[in-house]
Design a protein that fits this description.
Layout: H1 16-21, H2 87-94, E1 103-104, H3 105-119, H4 123-145, H5 159-162, H6 179-184, H7 186-197, E2 203-205, E3 214-219, E4 222-227, E5 234-235, E6 238-239, E7 249-251, H8 253-268, H9 280-290, H10 299-318, H11 325-343, H12 346-354
Antiparallel strand pairs: 1-3, 2-7, 3-4, 5-6
Helix pairs in contact: 3-4, 4-9, 7-10, 8-9, 8-10, 10-11
Biased composition (Low complexity): 66-81
Region (Disordered): 64-96, 233-252
Amino acid sequence: MTVLAEPHGVDRAPLARVIALRPSTGRHAAAGSPETAGLAPTAPVPTVHRAVSAGHATTATVTTLPASPRPVGAVAPAAAPTGQVTSDARHREGAHAEVPVARSLVRELEEVAAAMHDHGPLPSLRVELRQLLSAWGAALVRLHRTPLTSAVPLAELPWVLREPLPRWLADLPGDVGPVWAARAHPGVLRAVDEARRSWSAVQWTHGDATGDEVVVTRSRGVARAVLLGVADRSSPDGTLPPAPAHRSGRGDPRWDVATALDWLALALGPALDPAWGLDPVASFVAQYRELGGDALPTRATAVARTLSSAVEWTAQLTLGAEPTDEERAWLVGLWQRPLELVARTRPASSATRSS
């Protein structure tokens, strides 16, 4: 008997990490990779003018944010509606399915959050949450690793890095948040300028990698996520609003990761009870790094991303309508975020100057 013979009962199934990072079946050049299929338009797509780039409220429309005043993605902190299929039942039903059923990441997270509110943060639910965040991170890693060719279009800079803040912000009442302070703060302005100057268009990027753009399938207990593109806006929950034609392509992967982290902080974080000790942002970062992701955003990029979210949500909730008290409180928190990020850099900067 050879010493190289394997013992009986050895599990040769690939690890979940290997499955998550395994490329989709198909040709893997940048123009033909399944990871990038549909990200860039194959035909001219009408340009959608967003409110953030309009000079006046009377000419502005917003098509990329949900109408709900809740965080983007509307992850509900309350229990699941009557009749909603639980995640355990869903997994049992899908265990024998030949074709994995696609579901939106938002719905998956809603069910996990609802189950936690019903039963507490059970270890199985914590694992499921971690698996979903890991699948999302793996989708970004796979996309960012897709080889570039000359056929890959240049992704457009995020609007906050190429356009001045809209003039209608100056007309907002003070009870919607420290808008003036964020717009005029030297630290915020420096951060946006630094994010613009450090932009590095070196990898395949999505451009708006929020949770709303993620679709999840499950096979043999492993969750796998894919990102929706510009050409096909159909998701399991219906057709998403049109996306800017040139948002995807050769860009800076740090913006994709910053967008994912920002979405988690706004949408999922408030849906989880602080007593549970769960930090979805930290968990995503840990899973992303474990999968080999190396495009974590700089502080400047994070400031620019939070500023962008504040402007977009303000446009959604104040243009053409009077925000409710709850919406005003939400906006106050959004406008404080870029200021808080800038303030965190002060002690380190002061220590450097004094040393």
